[in-house]
Every structure is written in structure tokens, then in C-alpha cells.
Amino acid sequence: MRRNLTASAPNQVWVGDITYLPIADGKLLYPATVIDVYSRRLRGWSMADHMRAEPVTDALKAAVRTRGGRVDDVIFHSDHGAQYGSKAFADACHRAGIRRSTGAVGTSADNAAAESFFASLKREILPDRRSRPTEPAARLAVFSQRDSACEGPPVRCRAPLCGARRPSHERRRSSVSIRRLR
């Protein structure tokens, strides 16, 4: 990808990531996402109580299902996480016709769309670092954010008065240029 993720139409380039959400009982939940670079829409997601390959593989399978079962020549870009290097994830990509791409080691800039989604999600779910949601509350909050990212205004601006428009309705540039941070 040469650190320049571009897409002139939907379903050309997807990005994915997995993160953690601390919850009230001291445990962690691990949401995984697949986002279309062109529209910034969430195409697939999954959540688990572990950080193995299943959450990222399940998120990918969900994205593929929403696109009809096969997405030949979609490029899936991720970081170097072990989940994305696993045989299970490689097999899921191969079955769906997806080509894999990974970013430079130690940088999140080329996966900015996925990183931005999770930053917004954490700001919404964990606004006060001293308190943690219960597991059911965290799952419900992630589910609500998922609906906003799939169909509604951008997650960072959910109020209708702010002028936010659905990504699928915006006329905007269709590429994201990634600059190396120095």
C-alpha cells in the first residue's frame, strides 16, 4: 500500500483493528472492527472476552456477509497484531478473495480510520476514567456506537444540529493520504 490508503469506490480498501475496553469487574472486553476506507462505514464488528484470532476473524466474516459473501480483490489493511498474522485470519481472507496488507512496525498512522473509530468509542464509553461500565452496559454502548457508525452521523459528532452527514451521503475526497510522522 506504500502508506497511502486510497479508495475511489466502496469495497476497495478495508482497515481493521482490535482494542480493549476495561469494565467494572476488572476484566477487559475486546472489540474488533472492519471499516471501509472510502465511506468510513463500519462493515463488520465482533466483541469477545479474549484477544485471540476469533474476534478479528468474526469481524471480517461479518463484513464479507454484508457485501454478499465474497469480496474479490478487497485489500484489508491492519497492524502487525498476532491476530492478523494468524492462520485463521489468513484462511478467512483467502476464502473471501481478500488481499492482506500490513502497516509499518510501530506506527498507527496508516491505520488511522480504525484508530480514530476506537478513540471515539472509548471517549463515549469511558468518559470518566475513574468509573468503568459493567459488561452488559459496555456491550450495549458498543452496539449503539456500531449502529451510529454503520448508518448515522460520525461517532465523534452524534448531535444532529452539528451539521454532521452520513458518510455514505457525503461528497468528499475519496482518498486518505498517510504521511509519516517524524
Structure description:
A hairpin with a 5-residue loop joins strand 2 (21-22) and strand 3 (28-36). The chain has one domain (13-157): Ribonuclease H-like superfamily/Ribonuclease H (Nucleotidyltransferase, domain 5, 2-Layer Sandwich), CATH 3.30.420.10. The longest helix is centred in the last third of the chain and has 17 residues, at 135-151. Strands 1, 2, 3, 4, 5 and 6 form a six-stranded mixed beta sheet that branches. Helix 1 packs parallel to helix 2 (87-96) and helix 3 packs across helix 4. It is 30% helix and 18% strand. The protein starts with 12 loop residues before the first strand and ends in a 31-residue tail after the last helix. With 182 residues, it is of the alpha/beta class.
Brief descriptors of the model:
182 residues, alpha/beta, Nucleotidyltransferase, domain 5, 6 strands, disordered C terminus
In terms of topology, how is this protein built?
Blueprint: E1 13-18, E2 21-22, E3 28-36, E4 42-48, H1 53-66, E5 75-78, H2 87-96, E6 99-102, H3 112-125, H4 135-151
Parallel strand pairs: 1-5, 5-6
Antiparallel strand pairs: 1-3, 2-3, 3-4
Helix pairs in contact: 1-2, 3-4
Helix fraction, binned, reads 25-40%
The topology string of helices and strands comes to EEEEHEHEHH
Overall average pLDDT: 79
Broad shape: globular
Radius of gyration: 16 Å
Coarse structural class: alpha/beta
CATH architecture: 2-Layer Sandwich
Write down the CATH topology.
Answer: Nucleotidyltransferase, domain 5
Number of helices: 4
The H-level CATH homologous superfamily, spelled out, is Ribonuclease H-like superfamily/Ribonuclease H
Contiguous uncertain segments of 5+ residues: 151-182
- What's the CATH class label? Alpha Beta
Number of strands: 6
User: Beta fraction of the residues?
Assistant: 15-25%
**Biggest beta sheet summary:** 6 strands, mixed
Number of domains as seen in the coordinates: 1
